[in-house]
Specification:
This protein has 226 residues and is an alpha/beta fold. It has a single domain, classed as Rossmann fold (3-Layer(aba) Sandwich), CATH 3.40.50.300. The strands form two sheets. It has a five-stranded parallel sheet. A two-stranded antiparallel sheet has the order 5-6. α2 crosses α3 and α4 runs parallel beside α5. The longest helix is centred in the last third of the chain and has 24 residues. The two termini are 17 Å apart.
Length: 226
């Protein structure tokens, strides 16, 4: 069992790593951003309320996120663990998550923070394209599609998300620094935080995170037996 959080600024690669780790461990990759974008696309009440914040590069209010994530974490596939990506985003969200897990006699086993310089984040995000049909992600410099503007997986047309245009990216990074970085201190105090260099390549980053997960799982098992 592994309940973990991946932290990092926009473009740090936490979605890629959470997805790879989830497949390797047989647990769901739960990305708050994907859930929000799906709601926006479907025109749900949550989507209509969240869309203006997302388009401005601001954080969606806690009350919207907490209700959405509580519902998702209660689904059967999350019973044996999960890799959270994009949640929690604030200390208030982290405290609320801890409280809800405690009610179920559960806890997080690890929190991993991916460190990437701002210049690199801007480069990555400005060159990122996604397929709105199957959610495949490309990076024009490092992971370009075989045919320009066309998804390799399903043949759909690739787009640049509004929140990945340069002016919005800068706003997102400012918001991240103000609202999300305090989470590092919060999780340091709990002893759960592990920091990983997010610029050493996808495979190397995954290897480091997998090692952290193995160590955390062993430690958690020892505590349960004690």
């Amino acid at each position: 069992m592994m309940r973990m959080v991946l932290l990092g600024p926009p473009g740090s690669g936490k979605g890629t790593q959470a997805g790879a780790l989830a497949r390797r461990r047989g647990i769901p990759h739960i990305a708050s951003g994907d859930i929000l974008r799906a709601n926006v696309k479907e025109g749900t009440e949550l989507g209509r309320r969240a869309a203006p914040y997302m388009e401005r590069g601001e954080l969606v209010p806690d009350e919207l996120i907490l209700d959405m994530m509580a519902e998702r974490l209660a689904e059967p596939d999350a019973a044996e663990g999960y890799a959270l990506d994009g949640f929690p985003r604030t200390v208030a969200q982290a405290e609320a998550l801890d409280g809800r897990l405690s009610e179920r006699q559960q806890r997080l086993e690890a929190v991993v923070y991916l460190e990437v310089p701002e210049k690199e984040l801007l480069r990555r995000l400005s060159g990122r394209r996604i397929c709105p049909d199957c959610n495949a992600i490309y990076q024009l410099e490092t992971m370009a599609p075989r045919q320009e503007g066309i998804c390799d997986a399903c043949g759909g047309g690739l787009i640049q998300r509004k929140d990945e245009q340069p002016e919005v990216v800068r706003r997102r990074l400012q918001v991240y620094a103000r609202e999300t970085e305090p989470l590092l201190d919060y999780y340091r105090r709990t002893g759960l935080l592990h920091e990983v260099d997010g610029t050493i390549g996808v495979d190397n980053v995954l290897a480091e995170i997998d090692g952290i997960v193995k160590g955390s799982a062993t430690e958690a098992a020892g505590k349960r037996q004690a």
